[in-house]
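> @MW can you paste both from yesterday?
MW: sure, first one:
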Amino acid sequence: MKQILAVPLLAGMFLTACKKEMKVKNHTYGNYDAVQIRHISLDLKVDFETKSLSGSAILDIENKQSANQVILDHKNMDISEVQVDGKKVGFEIGEYDTVLGSALVIPIDDSSKKVQVFYKTHPDAEALQWLSPEQTNDKKNPFLFSQSQAILARTWIPLMDAPAIRFTYDAKISVPNHLMAVMSASNPTGKNKEGIYHFHQDKPIPSYLMAIAVGDFQFHNLGRNTGVYAEPGMLDKCAWEFADMQSMVDNAEALYGPYAWGRYDVLVLPPSFPFGGMENPVLTFATPTIIAGDRSLVSLVAHELAHSWSGNLVTNETWNDFWLNEGFTVYFEQRIMEKLYGFDYAEMLTTLARGELQHTVDDMMADPEQKNDTKLFLELDGRNPDDGVTDIAYEKGRFFLRSIEKVVGRDNWDTFLKNYFKTHAFQTMTTEKFIAYLNANLLDKNPEWKSKINYEEWIFQPGLPSNCESMKSKELERVSKSIEIYKTDKNPESIDTSGYTTHHWLFFLRNLPALHATDMQKLDERFGFSSGGNSEILCDWFVLSVRYKYEPAYEAMKQFLGHVGRRKFLLPIYKELIKTPEGKEMAKAIFKQYQSGYHAVAVNTLKELLGE
């Protein structure tokens, strides 16, 4: 049922749009072909008691087609008033959709320039996670962070929520004066007494890159234009872990051109953050699970940094084109890691990823409902765009780009990519436009190249093409030899693990033979897996513990699932648990206990998995 707010209309204006079904394009109700948002000004108060943001958003608009209305996206927020150029107007809210929310329809005319929406978010706004002090690292102060990707910005800002729409923004954010606010914009490096913070983002960004965080955190400078924010108790550890961050920026610029965003800083969030990282411009949000104490997981920072070119600078126009963000970024990440840590190390990471990709493709191809989702170009219309967040966009995309590099040569490929980012800076890109650009600026120069690069198969066909390379890694060959020895005698003492990093251990765990609980116990006694602090290793270990019914690890597993909210770690363990009736019962009990500490993104995924 529609909600009609009876407030005065602009003279001579009547609303009729919501009397018929709202059109949806690119997962937005927004009529962005007719009306474009150029700038957004936010004035919001952060209230931890009510778990809400309240205030207003002023949208600077350009009415390009003499439209009589502007249509915005909003989901589960209270709209109290709307003004157009300072005059109060009526508005309508369309029917509610569980994925898309509702259309907010506002009357305008040819001369309309500014639309101001006064609103308040709900405590359960999906983009916002409100954490009690107990859920943070230091356990002293509350914490708020946002996660707007893919289409959750509409739960905390009324706007046109699609990647095709770019705008600049500024913000005034009021917070409790013992806390600090940061955004995907120019940021403070310390608290102020008033608790009022001003932000400016003068580069046009899509809505999914709108970000805010509020908490008790401090800043540590790491170099010319890099630094890290973290809770005081984590700051020194984070600064040590990210010591190479300035070198990452410098090497990335050497590869594909100048960094366009000014500063590159990282905010380390509490454990409930559902992703490894989020590439919010200027300020990457990162999971604390990458603070491993040995700098072995900093490829995630390289990945989010690479998004400053692929994604933030050149953005997928629709969520069907998601691979244009992630495939390019994983490829770029690999090149940064190779520059910093050498070819052998980078190839070890790529080899592990190749195995994960094969596993994903095998699972999805076996399910008729998922088979088509193994294409690079997706078909997400009418679906939640989060369905596209799989290894396909990331890893199949990366290996497609590696296949092009192998055909045309690295020098030619690097020149192409550098020009690609420069030519399309602050613009959107579709798969169709990319293919045209690839042909015109690279493949048409050499018929032999074009014949070898089967982009039609890579992009539009399910599964992996025959020329998707298999991988070998010198570093992992040593691990393979240890595994062969272990298969023979099942004696953990015979395994030489000197010099093992996280990635050596992951390869080891993923390639062990079938085990019994007694074998697991011996491995645990030898290597202390259950009591380890590395989340990557713990995740794989707990999956094996469930598979082989190694019950001594269950309590540590439950604590892990209660502490870590990163979906990458939650899903494999929950998936393994539900394979047996008793495991599914345990999974549901664990989820019920810890659900309140998970972000909505993780909660929605796990509810679907558990059938709740």
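MW: second:
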Amino acid sequence: MNAKIAVLSSFTSMKTGILLGWKITDSQIKMQNNVPANHLAEETSPYLLQHAHNPVDWHPWNGSALELACQEDKPILLSIGYSACHWCHVMAHESFEDQATAEKMNALFVNIKVDREERPDLDKIYQRAHQLMAHRSGGWPLTVFLNPHDLVPFFTGTYFPKESRYNLPGFVPLLEKVSGYYRENKESLGQGKEAFINALNSTSVTAPSSVDAALPSRVRSEMEKSFDNRWGGFGGAPKFPHPTSLDFLLRRYALSDDAKALHMATYSLRKMAEGGIYDQIGGGFCRYSVDAEWRIPHFEKMLYDNGLLLALCCQAWQITGDELFRKVAMETAEWVLREMTSPEGAFHSSLDADSEGEEGRFYAWDRQEVKSLLSDGEYALVALHYGLADTPNFEGRWHFHVALPLEECESRLGMEMNAAKELLNSSRNKLFAAREGRVRPGRDDKILTSWNALMIKGMSIAGRILERDDFTDAAVKALDFLRTRAYQNGRLLAAWKDGRARFPAYLDDYAFLLDAALELLQNRWDKSILDFALALADDLLARFEDEAEGGFFFTAHDHEPLLHRPKSMMDEAMPSGNGIAAFALNRLGHLLGEPRYSIAAERTLKAATQDMGRYPQVYGSMLNALDEWSSPPQTIIIRGDGDEMHGWRKMAMECHVPNRLCFAIPASATDLPGLLKDRKPGSETVAYVCVATACLPPVYSWDELQRALYA
């Protein structure tokens, strides 16, 4: 333990994690009567605006607030959260809306509020600080107390109740103790910056080493050890979907015919699709399940989860033909179009866990209410299928999950399957219409570049596999929005709200958007999208690459100086920006024959190899990049016009071949970069098939192309 961490150990008993299960009467943040706006009033973040009329004198993170803390020699109370976060609402309602608590905060601290979705750079630093200092995982709300003179934290926690309960200190006594500790220990705290930064840096990736191409096979074995054979997924409660791990397993099946890998992926997706983590009435997935059976979720719906799971469900249907996956993919994409698409065409960020002051209230049902909405036959089926025949499973009410498969319901009720399906559909339509009349959960309507990119990729895959042009249209509109609104003066920006694009983009924004653009181009060729992808790739290399050690920093070289510059390789709630960068750059390098991109991808893999070997299960996206680096993608370029060209593309993409890229480029397209300029159109449709640097002769019929694809 270094000296800095030792100074903090006296507070260990006061550290806290996130609690589950406690309800409040009103967790929504409301405007306070007779309370003037604080410094958040000019922000665009819905989360920050929720706090703009708190009696707390909140500041956004900026130079003025940091300078004020130095001038007044007050420690900084840094509070990090997001608008869909239930426990952020709880703490706000209990403490930040309370006049007496606010007065104490204002007297003792300079208070700074941060939306972690706008400022993931700050969140990564101070979440990691909390993990080091508290010796436990982080969460939101994150509460961090900083030395104002060097911004080094000296005490951290997550949710604190207003009054002491559940073995946690009351917030006001905690404020007094932390303030007193700062006043009494200023000198020693001021000597801890170097030790703290060294501790943060020690968590960064290790030195580059040779790429281990056998690593994916070893990781696959490790995943099997933690697989939940009964309920699917990995580990116990709380249980997260881990989409990058499922993607890795689907890829292992496709590349090596690994039946167990396919089972682990599809069984997990099935159990989620049948569980309460999936909205059985309206579509879309919640963030995670509080139990191991996927039945009761944490009810917030995040755009990024749904983009990733949408793609996986489409691929699972493509592999297995199981109609459940097609149904869930359709419903999820339609939920995105219905509830998460902005008038401008981009995608909103999230739906809150809470409505009317209660978590999950929008989604839970009373048995009598359901009975009153349905016919006797409909109710009999719904009660069996969704668990209404069992005891209540959520706060005295029912949250729907598939308690009994439709086939068994059909048998018990003496119905034919088609009749059962029709009855279930009519029941769901009635329940959906009734639920639409309820008070809806709040929606965070800011546009985040990285999250939009994940949904653009998901909708592109859905449009192609499900043959839904409207899904592809949505992906095109969202990408066009980001190109025109979030890309300004040659720089990508991370967030857009109310006509303002803000915050220099992070690694995830560039990497995810590059990957999404390459995916969308396989549905519809557009030279301007390719040009945009090239600009993103060049920016990644110029502004983010670690030229000494390989890989990419999370922030650009000219980003605001912070205590630490993360370069994480592992997946978190979203895929690793480094993993997706390596994956997309490798693909782009092979597509264009441009070694700069392929070399940068290889250097990233080398930088991650040692840590991948130590903690393999949190490197799904990096492992997928490693798979394509060791087995280069098959690239198909089809040139021509009309239905034949698109028919060839469709047939080439009918099977799940994850390391296959196929682009149908009209004969009229000119001024193509790299190898594409040599893929010339002829008098008839022609296809060019390459793997790595080896290319077959041009083929001029579908039969020839089919033989070439599976040679």
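> thanks! The chain is about 50% helix and 10% strand.
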